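Hi Y.,

Following your request, here is the sequence exactly as I used it, all 270 residues.
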Amino acid sequence: MKHLAPLVLLACGSFNPITNMHMRLFELARDHFHQTGKYQVVGGIISPVSDNYGKQGLAAAKHRIAMARLALQTSEWVRVDPWESEQRQWSETLTVLRHHYKELLKSHHIRELPGENNWPIEKAAGASLASSLTVVPELKLLCGADFLKTFQTPNLWKEEHILEIVGKFGLVCISRVGSDLSQCIVESELLSRYQQNIHLVREWVQNEISATSVRHALHKGHSVKYLVPDPVISYIKQHNIYTEETERKNEGDLLQPLKQYNAALSPLND
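Below is the corresponding structure, written out as tokens. Let me know if you'd prefer a different format.
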């Protein structure tokens, strides 16, 4: 019997609010990997960003976590993880990937070499025979088409972070109808170098649902039924989350990655 490599998919983002499209990304990615005959997807993780990200209209993390949990009540393999949202400071995507990979190692009683960029090398003392025979799942970053394009945004990403994300972990990008993500890869020397680690998955049903569109509809009092799960709609109404006032939150602010970049360029005594 052919051995299938276990795989966990991690999606980072605002999830403001979570939509049916967010959850479809996981289903599409799982189908893709299972069709390769090489992988068995064993889990999915949704990791909402912290409140300190600074994005305009970003609802409080406690609400975004609660809505995501409600949305995933019927999922047997995708879960919400609050770790990133609970950090006092905004966490870079690579930091989140490293955290979840280390959690996978712990669950399989694997120990890493000193240093945060290393792969596992040995079983920890006391590991059971069963765990010693278990393969640690690969961890890949799941994203939409727009995410891959952000690698081209000046000052938004550190090159060494892109290198580790793509080179060590790998990307799974769901492309929308009409978008050509292969062009983004061709135009980037770094992405081209590791294109074997970038899995492009075509969305076979045209779906343009976005959290931004959902929030705009809510501001106008329009229905968002069938765009987001019913329990999420009820939660939004109950807590009055998305209004014209909340959409102005962080208005005019720079995103944290851009703030950090600008701070790094500022003179020390400025």
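The first strand starts at residue 5 and ends at 13.

Thanks again,
Q.
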